[in-house]
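Homework help thread (please don't just give me the answer)

Our assignment gives two proteins as sequence + C-alpha cell strings and asks us to describe the second one. The first is just a warm-up. Here they are:
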Amino acid sequence: MNPKTSLPVALIQERNHGAADANLEVIEARVAEAAGNGAKLVMLQELHNGPYFCQHENVCEFDLAETIPGPSTERLSKLAKQHNVVLVTSLFEKRATGLYHNTAVVFDSDGSTAGKYRKMHIPDDPGFYEKFYFTPGDLGFEPINTSVGRLGVMVCWDQWYPEGARLMALAGAELLLYPTAIGWDPDDEQSEKDRQRNAWILSHRGHSVANGLPVLSCNRVGHEPSPIGASGIRFWGSSHVLGPQGEFLAEAQTDEPQVLMAEVDMERSEHVRRIWPFLRDRRIDAYQDLLKRYRD
C-alpha cells in the first residue's frame, strides 16, 4: 500500500460505563491509544455517552440530551485537537424543547467542527423505540469535508437503506461511516442471532460493493438490561472496516471492547470503479418509481 494514500483509521468499540463523564473518560483514553498507534481518523459508537436508552419510552430520558455546541462537543473538540485526529462522534442532540435528534458530529484534526449529520431513518421496534425520542434528520445525505477526506457519515438504522449510501456516494463521499448500536435479544436461538448479525454485515458489504467505497461501522458491546423488565440487548460488537469491494480490512470481536485499527487505501476506489463502473451504468431515466412508497 502506498503510504501517501494510506489512511490509518481506528474504531473505538466500547461498552457503557454509566454516566457521560465515565464514558468520556474511557473515550479519551481509547482515542489517545488509537492516536498513539498512528490513527488519523477515529470513530466512536452510536450514543457513546451513556446507555442505549431507547429500550423503553420514558420522558426522563430527555434529560440526557444536550445542545450542539455543548459540554460534550467542547470536550470532544479538545480531544480531536490534542491528538491531531479527525473524530466522528454520536450525541443525543437537544435542538429545542420538544425537538431532539440522534446526531453525529465530526471534528477535524484542529478541533474545529467539520460538520454534523442527523440520523434520517428512525426505527420503532421492540427494544429500539427511537421514534419516541428522535425527530428524523433534516440535513440530508451530505458528505462532510475533513482533512483526511470527504466523509459520508450516517447512523445505525441508516445502514439498512441503500438509498442513503448511494446518495452519499453520488455527492462525492470517499468513505461511508456508521456509528452503530445493534445487538440481539439474549433469549433468541443462536441460529436467529447468527442470521441477524450476518445480515447486518452483508448490508455493509453491499453498500461497499455497490458504491465502490470503503465502509466503516463502529458498534458497541456488552449486555444492557431493559428498564421495563425485558431481556435487554446484548450488543454484538463486530465493528469492521471494509475495502471498496466489500473485503474485510479489519473486524473486531463480538463481546469485548477493542480499539480496532486498519489501513484504508484512499486511491483504491478509483481503480475499483474503473473496472466496475456501476455509476456509469445507472439507468437514472428509469428510477422514478423509487420516489413512491410502494408500487401498487
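The one we have to describe:
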Amino acid sequence: MNIIKFLDEFTTDNLIDGKTSRRDVFSKLGALSKKAAIAAVPFGLASVPKKALAQSMSADPVGALQLALTLEYLEDEFYDLALQSGVLPSGRPEIVYMQISKHEQAHVDFLRAGLEGAGVTPVEKPTFDFTVGGMFDPFNDNGVGQETAYAQLLALAQAFEDTGVRAYKGQAGNLLGSDFLTPALQIHSVEARHASEIRRLRGLKGWITNNDRGMGMPEATQAVYDGEENIVQGGVDVTTLGSDGPFTMEASSEAYDEPLSGDDATAIASLFIVN
C-alpha cells in the first residue's frame, strides 16, 4: 500500500473538500486491515468483555485496539448525530463535520475488520449519552437554541478529538512489535488534524497550550488537558533550550503533546457511556 497516497486523503485541503467517499476510504483500509490483523494480534487471546470499558485496558495489542475502537464508536456516532441535528451552519462547519464523519466511520470499520480478522470479537458499541445526563444539549433536542447548541457541538468535538490524539499516543507502546503500530500512528495523525480543524472553527489556535482547555470549554472537560503542561521531555527541561534564548513555558508545552493512559481515556469516555 502506498502510505504517502493514504495520508494524502487527510490533508487539510482534502479534509474540507468532501470529495473522498466512505466507500473509497473503506476499500483502502479494508485491504490493509485484513493483511495486518492476522500478523498483529496473537491468536487465542480472550476478547474484552461485552460491556464496554468494564475493566482497565490490559497492556497488549488487543486491549489497545479495543480501547481505540470504543473511542472511535463515540466519535462516529457523535458526528453522525451532529450532521442529522440541523444545528451545524451550512458552509465550512458542515463540510468539515461531514468529512470528519467519513474518517471516523472508516476508523471504526478498520478496527473491527482487524480484530475480526485475527479471530477476536470486537467490543460492542456502547449506548452513548452526549448530554451527560442533561449537562449538555448539543443537538438542540431541548430547544436551547442553535447558537448555544452549535457552541456545545464544537466544544464536545474538541474534547473528543483531543482525547483521541492523546489516547492513541498512550497506546503506542502496547502496539510495539505488531503490524498495527503503523496504522495506529496514521490514525493518530488524522485525529490530530481533526483536533486542529475543530479548534480553528472555534477561533482558537490549532494546538494545546499548557493544560488550558480553551475558551468556552466546560469544566467537565478538564481531564482531557491535565498533564499537557509538562515541560520535561527525555529528561530535559525544554524551557532551558533555544539558540536565541530559553523558550517560554507556553511555547515549550505547545511543542509537545502528552500521552493519555488507558485508564484516563476510559474515565473520560465513560462520562458519555450509559451502558
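TA reply:
I won't write it for you, but here's a hint about the kind of observation we're looking for: The radius of gyration is 19 Å.
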